[in-house]
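Appendix B, example 12.
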Amino acid sequence: MEKNRREIINVVTLVIILIAAFSISNLFNKSFKEESKIQNTQNAISISANEKVPEIEEPEETIYYSEQYTDSIVSDLNSSEEEISFSPKVAFIIDDLGYETEVARKMIELEFPIALSILPFLQYSDFIAEEGKKYNQEVILHLPMEPSNSSADPGPGAITFYMSEEEIRQAVRKCLLNFPHIIGANNHMGSKITEDRKIMEIILEEIREFNIFFIDSITSKNSIAHKVAQEMKIKSAVRSVFLDNENDMEYIKGQMLKVQETALKEGVAIAIGHSRINTFYILKKMTPELIKAGIEIVPVSELVK
């Protein structure tokens, strides 16, 4: 009996010793793993601290040596320049010059291009043509033609409806040769003439012989002058706005605003005024405003085609 008790005590003691040994072994393993983990973390931190941050490389500038590529750049620049430099254009014509010099001089001395449309055979026709040339203003013939209103006098040298073909030719030549520096012509009155194809063909044949352009003043809504000129391959254009059908400054101001509106909408406008002091003042005051609005003031010869 005593022997059996001792054996049980020995077995229990052995089990306790084994359990204690197992627990101590686990404790050592856990400690070792934690130490290893700490060491690995420190090593990783050390490695990270010693690593260099990679630099971001700037892209190298592309250099093209191709002549073809260079040509395309030049082409693009030219194209861009045309787009940037494009602006609506306005040309002014001053009609009925030749009667006087005071207002005519003021018109000639304006600091932008105008076309001086001079009537033939008047006292100051030659003088104004010479002065205009001196100030680099364009000189055109204000060719007098018979109007539909028979009571209105177009002045000396006028083309009339009942002239023969040869009389028309001679009349046009005399007018063109009356004063120097003429580079174009427009009609003075002439509503009866500009509606007649046959007469206009005769007139324009003579104008073509002198190699000058023609502006249809549109004194009649039924005018075919410009159409005939285009058919005959003569450089030509049409009037857009009359500035001073009324000699009133507020009216002329309103017409200048129409010029601006037309130019901005259609790209070009040809405005016709007369040798009047009110017209001069409005032109002098308002033309700079047109320029500020992005409109270019050009010689009328630039707008014919």
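The first strand starts at residue 89 and ends at 97. The two ends are 142 Å apart (CA to CA).
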